[in-house]
Amino acid sequence: MHQNSVNAYTAIQKDSLNGRELEASVLSRAGLMLKSVKDNWSDPDREQKLLEAVKFNQKVWSFFQAELSDPENPLPKNLREGILNLSIFIDKRLFEVLAFPDPEKLAIVIDIDFNIAAGLRTNNAGQ
C-alpha cells in the first residue's frame, strides 16, 4: 500500500516539476529508500527492501551517467567528470553493500543522494 502511494505521488510530481526539481525529487526518494532500510536494518524483509532501494539508486545514477556522457550535455566538462566519478563510487558502494550487508555502508550514499538533491533545489531556486 505504501509503495502505491509513493508511486502515485511520484507520477503527480513528474507532471508538475521541471527537470532539476524532478532530479532532486528522485534523488531524495532514492536516499529515503536507503535511509529506511538503514533505520530498519533488523526488519525481517530487510533483504527485499535493500535490493529494491539499491536497484532504484542504480537506475537513478545510471540515468545521470547516460545524461552526463552525452557530448551535448551543457554542464562544464569538469563538473560532468566529477559527477561521473561520484556515480562510479556509488555503484561500487552499492555492490559492496549487496555482497557484504552493513547498514553503515549506506550512510555515504544516503548523504550523497540528499546533498545533490539539495544542491539541485538550491540552484533551481536561484534561477
Give a topology summary:
Elements: H1 2-16, H2 19-39, H3 46-69, H4 77-99, H5 107-125
The gist of it:
This protein has 127 residues and is mainly α. The chain is built from five helices and no strands.
How many structurally independent domains? 1
* Strand percent estimate: under 5%
Helix content: over 70%
- For the termini, the CA-CA separation is 37 Å
Oligomer: single chain
* Number of helices in the DSSP assignment: 5
The first-level CATH class is given as Mainly Alpha
CATH architecture term:
Up-down Bundle
Cα gyration radius (Å): 15 Å
The arrangement of helices and strands along the chain is HHHHH
Mean pLDDT: 87
Low-confidence stretches: none
Question: What is the overall shape?
Answer: globular
- Number of E-type strands: 0
Helix/sheet category: mainly alpha
Write the CATH fold name: Four Helix Bundle (Hemerythrin (Met), subunit A)
Biggest sheet, open or closed, and with what strands and sense?
none
Key features?
single chain, 127 residues, Four Helix Bundle (Hemerythrin (Met), subunit A)
Task: Tell me what the structure shows.
By secondary structure, this protein is mostly helical. It has a single domain (2-125), classed as Four Helix Bundle (Hemerythrin (Met), subunit A). Helices cover 80% and strands 0% of the residues. The chain contains five helices and no strands. The chain has helices spanning 2-16, 19-39, 46-69, 77-99, 107-125. Helix 3 (46-69) runs antiparallel to helix 4 (77-99). It is globular. The mean pLDDT is 87.
